[in-house]
Hints:
Blueprint (H helix, E strand, L loop, with lengths): L9 E6 L4 H11 L7 E10 L4 E10 L2 H4 L2 H7 L4 E7 L14 E5 L2 E8 L5 H10 L11 H9 L5 H9 L7 E6 L2 E6 L8 E6 L5 E6 L3 H6 L2 E5 L4 E6 H6 L3 E4 L7 E4 L1 H6 L5 E2 L2 E2 H15 L11 E5 L5 H13 L4 E3 L3 E3 L14 H9 E3 L1 H4 L3 E6 L6 H11 L5 E6 L28 H8 L3 E4 L2 H7 L6 E4 L1 H4 L18
Parallel strand pairs: 14-24, 17-18, 17-21, 21-22, 22-23
Antiparallel strand pairs: 1-4, 1-10, 2-3, 2-4, 5-6, 6-7, 7-8, 8-12, 9-10, 9-11, 12-13, 15-16, 19-20
Helix pairs in contact: 5-6, 10-11, 12-14
Amino acid sequence: MSLDIRPECAVVGVYNHPNASVIAYYCLHALQHRGQEATGIVSSYWDEARRRRRFVAYKGEGLVLEVFSHHVLQEVLIGDAAIGHNRYSTTGSSQRANIQPFHISYRMGNLALAHNGNLTNTRQLRAWLQEEGAIFQSTTDSELFLHLIARSRQPTQVEQIREALQQVRGAYSLVLLTDTALIAVRDPHGFRPLALGRLPLRDGQYTYVVASETCAFDLIGAEYVRDVAPNEILVIDHDTVQSGTLKSYPIVDNPPQARHCIFEFIYFARPDSFIFGHSVDKVRRKLGKSLAEESPVRPSDPNDEVVVISVPDSGNTAAIGYAQVNQAQGIPTRFDIGLIRSHYVGRTFIAPEQDQREFKVKTKFNTVRGVLRDKIVVVVDDSIVRGTTSKALVQLIREAGPREVHLRVTAPPIRYPCKYGMDFPSRQELIANYYDSEEQIARALGADSLHYLSLEKLLLSVPHAPGVGYCTACFTGEYPVPIEPEADKYVTEA
């Protein structure tokens, strides 16, 4: 559930546009759902007086619309190339020094980087680099990339980047900006999405845009070209602008099987995005249909009607799919809007003298009592994590006077924390590890019944491609990339 899972980060890159930072700004706004803690943009322009490239950075805590002003975008972040980042730290400090993109100047010129994902050998690499004399400016794993690139003795920046990437483990979708190119990278497993788009500019040229999700392209009118492939280093430079030729290099020569994060489809991505080459909306609708096939809700009186509602927003299309299948099975069913979500909840508030979790739910959701009163209500949600939010939500719905409340969840029970870019609690905090059955969890949450979508049905409901699998570690504990001990000691960037 959205109050218990913090979204990951978003990355954006723009190349060959006279107002690149403005394009990056709009893309970051479209991707605000992936990070609401802080945001930043680094832009690049040609300094005619000094005959070299100059990089400019502007960062701040808060939402995209709060941090960047018209003056900053037009007068400070000038240039024809830019990268941007929306941030949620998955563990540790949220200090200002950790706000991305990061920018350095080293012997090969300027280099800026923004990262979505988590590294799993952070502790080992950081200890080694400190022993070698490295001085860290932040507490994030993302800074490791810059140190490793700067230390490389390879002759070109692309080769330096490739050598650095071969030393890290875990999940990373990166955008890097150099003096001559925009570079996009996905780790060998391809855990996190990253897409390439382009926007017509002039004289047959294009502006190239890289973003975590394709909904960013829709806002600026860019066309989706393709995904950055798992294990790919994609270089966009002057030659690309002139001829349309993209340069592609592998990170490792014999990559493992790709493992996309299945939770991107369940919860993280916007429903109007295409990730991993597929429509999020269609996948979520299929998840809702599969859930109804596994666990329909039938009233004891055939004259009664079942009202299906969603926990907005990630549950919306899944609830529609659930209602469609329930109807197809001959059960009187309708989808309706039973919960209204406030989109104006601030990052902080002063809670009154009552349960903090209950108050958080009430600040975010309110019920439509006329829809729920005296009805058999099915609540379709994306996931249950700690269970405290779900319990407060069931109580809120009960106050509207339904006869029955049934929970249906489009994910299997979450039993393990994610180590690749999602902020799940520790195993000790996950409600699925405290009870032996769905019936027991339903009673603990105050619902009449509960059903999680089975892992088998989930895997049948998502798209598949040759040679590509899914990471399901949060359900199974089977981590595709080994996790080092005490990996949570440092901040990791989602």
